[in-house]
Amino acid sequence: MANPMVQQRGTELKQHKSWLSYVRRNYILYLFLAPAVILTVIFKYVPMYGAIIAFKDFSPRRGIMGSAWVGFEHFQRFLSSPNFYDILMNTLKLSAYGLILGFPVPILLALMLNLIRSAKLKKNVQLIVYAPNFISVVVVTGMLFVFLSPTGVVNAMITTFTGKPVSFMSDPAYFRSVYILSGIWQTAGWSSIIYVATLAGVDPQLHDAATIDGASLLKRIRHIDLPALRPVMAVLFILAAGGIMSIGYEKAFLMQTALNTPTSEIIATYVYKVGLQAGDYAYSTAIGLFNSVINVILLVFVNTVVKRLNEGEGLY
């Protein structure tokens, strides 16, 4: 009777040989994949070594390994700081409101684009709605300051009806609205591409059959288009919710003024100020690591919830 260990070893060798033969046959594909893997390792995994700074009293002169360990001192310092709650809530509110208000817009835009029958008109509309995505954040912020200034076009119309301008860019009450709405305007068209591509794969005969059966436009969207979009919507929602704490500092920092700081100061801008401007690298690294851990927790939680609500379909 053959030894089970010998049989298992033989099976492993066969699998190893078959894998090597597969790689040899398709080595061109692996060569195409290599640059992406190398760049991901260099720019995503290698920098993880720098996370050690969060647990050290880092000094550029002594280096990472030469600096003394301080454990969770920097995390405790951030959690006990007087502005921790305000910064955390500003970040969560800005992300959550942006997700709630901005996530459905690309879906609605894709559904509307899918209803356009003229190919030429559809291309022109797509060109118009995709264009804002290619405008840099600096230019968009500059446009906001020009249009929403007390002497800008928007306030000129408001003054006509109310008699006084509105301080959109300096009043903390308007910061989130301006930030979120301008972000939706800039990214909605580009974000709708994947939904438009998904709808393009829906069999037109399903719509024809539903029309013959007397289904209205809304019923066709509900029973044909939305079920086709549901898997894509689930994945994109999980990714968006998992990155709810990952707001880039650029736009918030550029829109920030001395007057709207109570609502515009988020974790990203705070890290930039204490890390690059103040030079407290260890403290800023600890804040950034705290932010990343919260993102991972949210990603796992949202993925679990979506899988339960979406018949087991999730990100992983």
From TrEMBL:
UniProt main location, coarse: membrane
**Residue ranges of the ABC transmembrane type-1 domain?**
88-302
InterPro entries, from UniProt? MetI-like (IPR000515), MetI-like_sf (IPR035906), UgpAE/MalFG_permease (IPR050809)
Cite the Gene3D superfamilies for this sequence: MetI-like
Give the bilayer topology.
Multi-pass membrane protein
KW Cell membrane (keyword) present: yes
Q: Any stretches that span the bilayer, and where are they?
A: 27-46, 94-115, 127-148, 178-197, 228-249, 281-302
Keywords for this entry? Cell membrane, Membrane, Transmembrane, Transmembrane helix, Transport
Transport listed as a keyword: yes
The compartments listed are: Cell membrane
Family label: Belongs to the binding-protein-dependent transport system permease family.
Recorded hits in PANTHER family, A to Z, give: BLL4140 PROTEIN (PTHR43227:SF11)
Name the UniProt record assigns to this protein: ABC transporter permease subunit
**Species per Swiss-Prot/TrEMBL record:** Paenibacillus phytohabitans
Q: Taxonomic lineage per UniProt?
A: Bacteria, Bacillati, Bacillota, Bacilli, Bacillales
